[in-house]
Design goal:
alpha/beta, five-stranded parallel sheet, fucose metabolism, carbohydrate metabolism
């Protein structure tokens, strides 16, 4: 959501348009529908964006009764795509809604649009005062120093990946099957190719094995930045015993009543302020956390290589031999503490 909204800011500047604060279409992720103001400080955002783009909280009355003209931006990759094919719709209908473009080429934007996007991402978007206080309370409660681990092994993620995992518990298999829908797992040679391309999420047990290959001590304090649906988590906890979660550290009524995306905001806050950040995936949160940590000068960021793990195990490596090979595969990034999202960051608001 944060990424898509920052993209929307850049596009609004490209089109010289007024931005209306969005309503989150969150049901697909969290089965609830909280709004922008439940997560972000609205007045602060509007104030910080002054001079970059105009932002309004609500539509003017003469427009509010209209349905927006919907524009699919999924194929737009540069400023001229928007100016030549989206701007005419805005001028004609005055009010448009856009779908996010997963393959944005933000580096092709002119400087004023880049500046607006960067100001939104790094300067203007901050959590509400209440949510930030809760996040700071959570951060304070975590034993220090600590590593924040974004572990993606939930039923929907595994189902979406179309990967099969032998040896899972009956409960995990049932949860994955319930989440599959039409996405049937790959089989045979297609499954082997898919896995070797790094498309299968790492299990908690595989994550713990890579941690050991990197000589991360088993008594390391680990904050688990994840929802409540993680499967097979004992594969990690049986080896790394100092694992804490937000649900264990925050048990008040206000936490229990939080929406899914406000709980995710807590993970985001903790992750960008952690001593180290490790991700088993390369999703939107991982990219945003890595970029924000780089911006703040916190470079202890690492993405574990699913591809390396799959390729090495497919060769029959195991035990100490596999550990040594995994160390070599991660050595450069681990030593430098860098995430692979960082070279794409063109924002430098401090200079």
């Amino acid at each position: 959501m944060r990424r898509d909204f920052c993209d929307g800011v850049g596009i609004a500047r490209l089109l010289n348009a007024t931005l209306v604060l969005p309503k989150f279409e969150a049901a697909a992720y969290w089965n609830e529908s909280s709004g922008f103001a439940d997560v972000f400080d609205v007045d602060y955002f509007i104030q910080q964006m002054d001079g970059f783009i105009k932002v309004v909280k609500e539509l003017p009355p003469e427009v509010a009764l209209k349905e927006p003209f919907r524009v699919d931006c999924s194929k737009r990759k540069g400023q001229f795509d928007y100016i030549e094919s989206v701007l005419p719709s805005l001028l004609k209908y005055q009010y448009i809604s856009i779908t996010p473009a997963m393959s944005q080429r933000r580096d092709r934007y002119p400087l004023d649009a880049k500046a607006a996007l960067c100001q939104a991402c790094y300067g203007a978007l901050r959590l509400t005062r209440t949510l930030e206080q809760k996040a700071a309370e959570l951060l304070e409660a975590i034993p220090k120093p600590f590593l924040s681990l974004h572990l993606r092994f939930e039923p929907d993620m595994v189902a979406y990946s179309q990967c099969e995992y032998p040896g899972l518990s009956p409960a995990s298999k049932e949860a994955i099957e319930a989440a599959r829908g039409d996405r049937k797992p790959w089989t045979g040679e297609a499954a082997r190719i898919w896995r070797k391309r790094g498309k299968c999420p790492l299990t908690p047990n595989e994550t713990a094995f890579i941690f050991q290959a990197l000589s991360i001590p088993t008594n390391t304090n680990i904050y688990l930045a994840a929802g409540d649906g993680l499967m097979e988590i004992e594969g990690l906890k049986s080896i790394y015993t100092n694992v804490v979660t937000k649900s264990a550290l925050l048990s008040g009524e206000d936490f229990l009543n939080m929406h899914g995306n406000t709980k995710a905001a807590l993970d985001y806050y903790v992750s960008i302020n952690s001593d180290s950040y490790v991700a088993t995936f390369f999703g939107n949160m991982d990219k945003m956390v890595a970029a924000m940590r780089a911006y703040k000068g916190l470079h202890n960021t690492l993405f574990l290589s699913r591809r390396a793990y799959a390729e090495l195990t497919s060769k029959g490596l195991d035990g100490k031999e596999l550990m040594q090979a995994l160390w070599l595969a991660h050595k450069e990034d681990f030593a430098m503490g860098r995430g692979s999202a960082l070279p794409d960051c063109f924002c430098d608001l401090k200079s």
